[in-house]
Each structure stands twice: as structure tokens, then as C-alpha cells.
Design brief:
With 287 residues, the protein is mainly alpha-helical. The chain has one domain: ABC transporter involved in vitamin B12 uptake, BtuC (Orthogonal Bundle). Helix content is 72%, strand content 4%. The chain has eleven helices and four strands. Helix 1 packs across helix 9, helix 9 crosses helix 10 and helix 9 packs parallel to helix 11. The longest helix is centred in the N-terminal third of the chain and has 30 residues. The termini are far apart.
């Protein structure tokens, strides 16, 4: 029974990592940049929920998601679009700078101390002899629905197919009349919305927020995206679920102090065996 609870918790946590990893992998696949400030959008979501929670929990969730989407659009327009033709190192340094800027602003506005954010007291349910938190079930169900909806959006909508075209060949997509800037902006907005929802579901697990709240989940989600295959949406899902399950299993054993080391060891092993990730594909670079 304990293993079932651990597995459900792992799938739920993996769903959160997958949502964050999807933002990483979509932005990399389309804009070809690693937005290391993406994890801090989770932190911004938590503080936005804290601000609006006094009005109504549903309103707080909606406002936090919209605010994070606008934040993602602003980051793309102000920080990344001017560097569209710059070297990858310049973009990487800018992303790190944006990350520290968001953390510093959060510390100035809300302070460095932990803040408790109780979105809702959902309680728990008993299935046979297994007692599971309702928040865990909601997180697992919502993550599956969101990931399926995103897959359908990319596969069957005009904008989704344009995203695929831009990720495959930006120049050819531009010649076909696709607005590259618009597609990249939409990608940042979707990725930031996913990070906002991941922030909400993270609060179901640990109801505290701090300026560095999104740093470690962001790094782990990036690891999940690389494990699954950076640039691959199914890969991000698979990597997130795998990492969440491994983390919860390790935390339930004497290996708990070495959980993070084990997660990064898995990353190293997979990259040694398959450098493109589990579902990643080799791409030919045009010279």
C-alpha cells in the first residue's frame, strides 16, 4: 500500500515537472534558447496567488495565470527578442540575469522570509486501504488533461502547426508567411501559463513560497526536458514523469539524502547512452 501511495505521489510530482519542462522544451524547440528564468515564473505565480487569494481562490488562480502569461510575453519582447541574432552565450547570460532580477524583485517586495499560501484545504480520500490527498489527485488529473490538450493543440490547430514549422525550419516557415515573432510570443505565453499552473500545484504539496522557490523545480524540470529529449513535447512529459517517480521512490527509502544526486546521475547516464535524450532526434544543422 505504501508503494501505491509513493507511486501516485511520484506521478503527481512528475506531472508538475512535466508542465515546467514543457515550457523549457517548447521555447528551446521554437526559439532555440534556454530560458533559465522559466523556473522563476513558478515563484511569481505563487506570489500572485498570495496577493489575490484574499479575494477568491479561483480568481487568484486565473489572475496568477494571466499575470505569468504577460510576464512571459514581456520577457520575450524586452530581454530575448533584441538578442535574436546574438550568440547563444549572450542569450544564456541574459536569461540568468532575468532570473536573478525576478528573485531580487520578489525579495524587495515580499521579503526573504517564507510565506504560507494555503490555496484550499482539500483534505484526503480513502480508496480501500490507501489514503491519498485530494490535491495529489487533482494535480495528477489536471496535468494529464493539460498535457493531452497541449498535444492536440500542437497537432491540430493552425497555430500549433505553425509552431512545428518554425521549430523545423525557421527560414522556410518565414517564406511560407508565418509570423515568427508572433509564434515565439505565443510559445512564451503558453510556457509561462504552464509554469503558473505548476506553481499552483506545487503549493498543494508544499504551501510555502520564497524568492528562490522556483529555482530547484526549474532545474529539475530542465533535467527532465533533457532526459526526455529537449525540443520534444512527448519527451518532456516522459522525462517529468520519470523524474517525479524516481524522486518520490528515493525519498521513501534510506536513499533520501542522495535523491538529487541520483536524479542528476540518471541524466548523465542517459546522455552517455543517448545524447539526444530518450525521445530526442538528431537534427542536421544548415551550414
Amino acid at each position: 500500500m505504501d508503494f501505491i501511495i509513493t507511486l501516485v505521489n511520484g506521478l503527481s510530482l512528475g506531472g508538475v515537472y512535466a508542465m515546467i519542462a514543457l515550457g523549457y522544451t517548447m521555447v528551446y524547440g521554437i526559439a532555440k534558447l534556454l530560458n533559465f528564468a522559466h523556473g522563476d515564473v513558478i515563484m511569481v505565480s505563487g506570489y500572485a496567488i498570495l496577493v489575490f487569494l484574499s479575494f477568491d481562490p479561483i480568481l487568484a488562480i486565473i489572475c496568477a495565470t494571466l499575470f505569468c502569461m504577460l510576464l512571459g510575453i514581456a520577457m520575450e519582447r524586452v530581454a530575448y527578442r533584441p538578442l535574436r541574432g546574438a550568440s547563444p552565450l549572450a542569450v544564456l547570460i541574459t536569461a540568468i540575469g532575468v532570473s536573478y532580477l525576478l528573485q531580487s524583485l520578489a525579495q524587495i517586495i515580499f521579503g526573504a522570509a517564507d510565506r504560507y499560501v494555503i490555496v484550499a484545504d482539500l483534505g484526503s480520500i480513502t480508496l480501500g486501504e490507501v489514503k491519498i490527498d485530494v490535491g495529489t489527485i487533482i494535480t495528477l488529473g489536471a496535468s494529464l488533461v493539460i498535457m493531452m490538450a497541449l498535444s492536440l493543440f500542437v497537432k491540430f490547430t493552425r497555430t500549433g502547426r505553425a509552431m512545428v514549422a518554425v521549430s523545423e525550419d525557421r527560414d522556410a516557415a518565414r517564406l511560407m508567411g508565418i509570423n515568427i515573432n508572433r509564434i515565439i510570443t505565443i510559445t512564451f505565453a503558453i510556457g509561462s501559463a504552464l509554469a503558473a499552473l505548476a506553481g499552483l500545484f506545487s503549493l498543494f504539496r508544499v504551501p510555502t513560497i520564497m524568492p528562490t522557490y522556483g529555482a530547484m523545480p526549474g532545474i529539475k524540470a530542465f533535467v527532465a526536458a533533457v532526459i526526455g529529449g529537449i525540443g520534444s513535447i512527448p519527451g518532456a512529459m516522459l522525462g517529468g514523469i520519470l523524474l517525479g517517480v524516481v524522486e518520490c521512490i528515493c525519498n521513501s527509502t534510506p536513499l533520501a539524502p542522495y535523491t538529487i544526486a541520483i536524479e542528476f546521475a540518471i541524466l548523465i547516464v542517459i546522455l552517455l547512452v543517448k545524447p539526444t535524450g530518450i525521445l530526442g532526434k538528431k537534427r542536421r544543422e544548415k551550414v
